[in-house]
Write a structure and sequence with these properties.
- It is a single chain.
- The chain is of the alpha+beta class.
- The protein contains 3 helices and 17 strands.
- β11 and β12 (233-235) form a beta hairpin.
- The longest helix is centred in the first third of the chain and has 24 residues, at 27-50.
- It is elongated.
């Protein structure tokens, strides 16, 4: 968010990808004071016991900075939420979701940790309504300081729904179920990947993803990949030299399989299967649905983490779409969703 976008007393979201929450002023002093209080309590209890007094029962600790965070989950299902919106500029970068660049139309949003949900929201879309109208945005980034319901929009998206001079506006928003797709799925193998360590970014899937599974070639067992909070799916022990088949399942049960994904780190590879809609081979076959389509994800303590975070359980083994060849794009082509 730019400094001009909000009043002086408003919270200031940090701009750009990989942003971190600033250290809270006075926290060291609070911890020091707390340590003194604890030490005084221990000394008092020791003196009381020596004097033969009966100590009173300690009161349960009050909820505070160390209280357990609420469960994190991305917006899904089309439920309308109320909140507020501010704006910022990613300066062309693809945000914590690790896209090579922002979408071409520059309509994107950063969510707070509870709704970003350790990367589970990446690649989904929201319809956001403000005083001037409605805009559809791609979930591309995390806003570490944003509470649930606080959307940090791109400057261009904010201008569609309000006058940027307002800085902060009240909005309503909902997840878009099965938005139009810009094309088939795209895959990007992470730099440093090898037959012994595998990580892939999946893009242009429309809805948030629930599971990604990988196998060497077109046969053999599927390996479940763990979602990282920077939006790559990791098989830490590797899958082999490739080419790979990758099976993708979204939160609404759409499942497709793309084959022929090569071990070419840093290069975007465009497949021939769409996540749903049936316009391309293998597109949109529903998988067996769980009792609730809402994905679960543990909140990450950092905006970007090199370690795996717990992923959703692998999808049930219903018949998958046939494998299809993957046609590589030019190196460095954007993998982000576009509307």
């Amino acid at each position: 968010m730019t400094d001009a976008s909000v009043p002086p007393d408003a919270p200031q979201p940090a701009g750009g990808p990989g942003r971190r929450r600033a250290r809270r002023p006075g926290r060291s002093r609070w911890l020091a004071a707390g340590g003194v209080a604890v030490l005084a309590g221990v000394l008092g209890l020791t003196l009381a016991l020596r004097a033969g007094a009966t100590p009173t029962c300690a009161a349960p600790p009050a909820a505070g900075p160390l209280a357990a965070p609420a469960a994190a989950a991305p917006p899904v299902g089309g439920t309308v939420h109320k909140g507020k919106a501010t704006f910022y500029d990613s300066k062309g970068a693809g945000g914590n979701c690790s896209y090579p660049s922002a979408p071409a139309n520059r309509l994107y949003v950063a969510l707070g940790p509870a709704e970003y949900a350790a990367g589970a929201a990446c690649g989904g879309h929201l319809d956001v309504t403000g005083p001037k109208g409605t805009v559809r945005v791609l979930v591309m980034d995390q806003c570490p300081e944003c509470a649930p319901g606080h959307l940090d929009l791109s400057r261009e998206a904010f201008a569609r729904i309000a006058d940027p001079a307002q800085g902060i506006v009240s909005v309503s928003y909902r997840a878009v179920v099965d938005p139009p797709l810009p094309g088939p799925l795209a895959f990007r193998i992470k730099e440093g990947a090898s037959r012994y360590w595998f990580a892939v970014l999946v893009a242009d899937h429309g809805n948030p993803l629930r599971a990604v599974q990988v196998r060497q070639g077109g046969s053999g067992g599927w390996r479940a990949a763990d979602r990282q909070d920077y939006n790559y799916w990791l098989v830490e022990s590797g899958v082999g030299p490739g080419p790979f088949s990758i099976r993708v399942t979204d939160v609404y049960g759409h499942r497709v399989t793309a084959g022929g994904v090569r071990l070419t780190p840093g290069q975007v590879q465009r497949g021939t299967v769409r996540m749903y809609g049936g316009a391309a081979a293998g597109g949109g076959r529903p998988a067996a649905r769980s009792a609730s389509p809402r994905p679960s994800a543990s909140p990450s303590p950092r905006a970007t983490s090199p370690r795996p975070s717990p992923s959703a359980a692998p999808a049930s083994s219903s018949p998958s779409a046939p494998d299809a060849p993957v046609v590589p794009l030019a190196a460095g082509a954007p993998a982000g969703c576009r509307n």
